[in-house]
Amino acid sequence: MFLICGLGNPGREYHKTRHNMGFDVIDRLVDTYRIPQSGTKFHAMVGSGVIEGQKVLLMKPLTYMNLSGNAVGEAVRFYKLDPATDLIVISDDIDLPPGRIRIRAAGSAGGQNGLKHIISCLGTEAFARVRVGTGAKPKDFDLADYVLSRFSEEERAAADAGVDLAAKAVACIVSEGIDAAMNRYNVRPKKEET
């Protein structure tokens, strides 16, 4: 079984903010694969079903971003999962433009507090993560204000394309493995290549 966790903050005031890209990807997976919601468990909204023939548990922690590890750690221990092979975490990334994603099999939190807390609670950096671009913070913005802001109308189409791409990447990880997903989705659009 795969545990697929999208990071974000619960509540209407955070809906569709830059920091909630992980929640948006989970919502897209729920819609695409018709995964029924199972209520709350492990301090998270959860739903279980099948993606590309593999059993999955989708999770949106209700702990707020900075305490995401509480929900993830509890589910990993309950199901006796190996984070290196059974866990996929989806988060926002200000170092990527809207519409771009980056997949890694392991690594540091890269300044993302939700990932930092998950690493701390699991005691390992070895788990798959799909980072979804939100665009760089403008100079005159506070980081917290920026990640809790919503996309402009122009950015929203690219952000939605990034959500679609991330959902496809998660399905690829589940069905073909992390290496196949990295080879397929960690590419720059043609116009960015020099």
Total individual domains: 1
Strand/helix succession: EHEEEHHEEHEHHH
Structural class: alpha/beta
User: What is the tally of beta strands?
Assistant: 7
**What does the largest sheet look like?**
7 strands, mixed
**How far do the termini sit from each other?**
41 Å
What would you say the CATH architecture is? 3-Layer(aba) Sandwich
Compute the average pLDDT: 90
Work out the helicity level. Answer: 25-40%
Give unreliable regions as ranges.
none
Q: According to CATH, what is the topology?
A: Rossmann fold
Strand content: 15-25%
The strands making up the biggest β-sheet line up spatially as 2-3-4-1-5-7-6
- The CATH superfamily bears the name Peptidyl-tRNA hydrolase
Main CATH class = Alpha Beta
Radius of gyration: 15 Å
Total helices: the number is: 7
What spatial form do the alpha-carbon principal axes imply?
globular
Can you give a write-up of this model?
This protein has 194 residues and is an alpha/beta fold. It has one domain: Peptidyl-tRNA hydrolase (Rossmann fold), CATH 3.40.50.1470. The protein has helices at residues 21-33, 68-78, 83-86, 113-122, 143-147, 153-176, 178-185; strands at 2-6, 37-41, 44-51, 54-61, 87-93, 101-104, 128-133. The protein has a seven-stranded mixed β-sheet, sandwiched between helices. Strand 2 and strand 3 form a beta hairpin. Helix 1 (21-33) packs across helix 6 (153-176). The radius of gyration is 15 Å and the shape is globular. The model has no long low-confidence stretch (mean pLDDT 90).
